[in-house]
């Protein structure tokens, strides 16, 4: 279940501004990759485009998953293919209980006409909540309403554990987390690591990658992947930042 992004160019539909300028990225099944880079250089645009966010339009290039194009599919079909996006800013949805949302989401990804048995759903939910150290009452609260920042991020990981996707894309899942919450979120991600699961982490922080060690790190600057490396690349960025990449992108000597 390999994700392949080839020469992807993406514009903002409303303004026509080009954000992605020829992104190339391959994530083989069973691997965890991370994308790092300065703010405003296209990381969130990339993951939003992969999942079908309507504000963006791909004008050139391809995105395939398991050899099948995803760009012409609606969001729900991409989810049924096994793609999952943990959002940077989870929305609050008053009136929809967390447990009801999770059950609807799980059933929506199952084959037509089938639903997960209630007992199996509850067993999976209880196990995931225990792993993430979430309070029992969180399933009865409205989705993300009144949740702390850490609770929202853990709830995104809870959704991932419930849906068990083939590829999880986590957009700054670590932002705003203290060290204890970071460890819990990382534990949830690592729990799914297997030869059948892959993940793409968008992060600014080297510390997350100490707990979820990636197979490869990619640096994105000015809408392009400009460098690739192993976990040691995060240490280099922690020391030196992105200055050299930004200078190279501008053509500075």
TrEMBL record:
PROSITE patterns in the cross-refs: ABC_TRANSPORTER_1, ABC_TRANSPORTER_2
Lineage: Bacteria, Bacillati, Bacillota, Bacilli, Lactobacillales
Keyword hit for Protein biosynthesis: no
Family: Belongs to the ABC transporter superfamily. Ycf16 family.
Transmembrane segments: none
Domain of life: Bacteria
Entry-linked Pfam families: ABC_tran
Residue ranges occupied by any ABC transporter domain in the UniProt entry: 3-247
Record SUPFAM superfamilies: P-loop containing nucleoside triphosphate hydrolases
Keywords (A to Z) from UniProt: ATP-binding, Nucleotide-binding
The protein's name: FeS assembly ATPase SufC
């Amino acid at each position: 279940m390999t994700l392949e992004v080839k020469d992807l160019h993406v514009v903002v539909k409303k303004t026509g501004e080009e954000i992605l300028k020829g992104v190339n990225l391959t994530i083989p099944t069973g691997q965890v990759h991370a994308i790092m880079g300065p703010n405003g250089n296209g990381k969130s645009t990339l993951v939003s485009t992969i999942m079908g966010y309507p504000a963006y339009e791909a004008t050139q290039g391809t995105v395939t998953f398991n050899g099948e194009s995803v760009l012409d599919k609606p969001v729900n079909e991409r989810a049924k293919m096994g793609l999952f996006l943990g959002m940077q800013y989870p929305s609050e949805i008053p009136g929809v209980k967390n447990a009801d949302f999770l059950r609807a989401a799980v059933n929506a990804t199952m084959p037509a006409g089938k639903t997960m048995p209630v007992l199996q759903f509850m067993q999976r939910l209880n196990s995931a909540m225990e792993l993430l150290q979430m309070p029992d009452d969180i399933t009865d609260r409205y989705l993300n309403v009144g949740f702390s920042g850490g609770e929202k991020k853990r709830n995104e990981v809870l959704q991932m554990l419930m849906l068990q996707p083939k590829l999880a894309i986590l957009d700054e899942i670590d932002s705003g987390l203290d060290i204890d919450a970071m460890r819990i979120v990382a534990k949830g991600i690592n729990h799914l690591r297997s030869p059948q699961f892959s993940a793409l982490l968008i992060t600014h922080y080297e510390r997350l990658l100490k707990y979820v060690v990636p197979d490869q790190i990619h640096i994105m600057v000015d809408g392009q992947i400009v460098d690739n490396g192993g976990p040691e690349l995060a240490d280099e960025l922690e020391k030196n930042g992105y200055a050299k990449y930004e200078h190279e992108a501008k053509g500075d000597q």
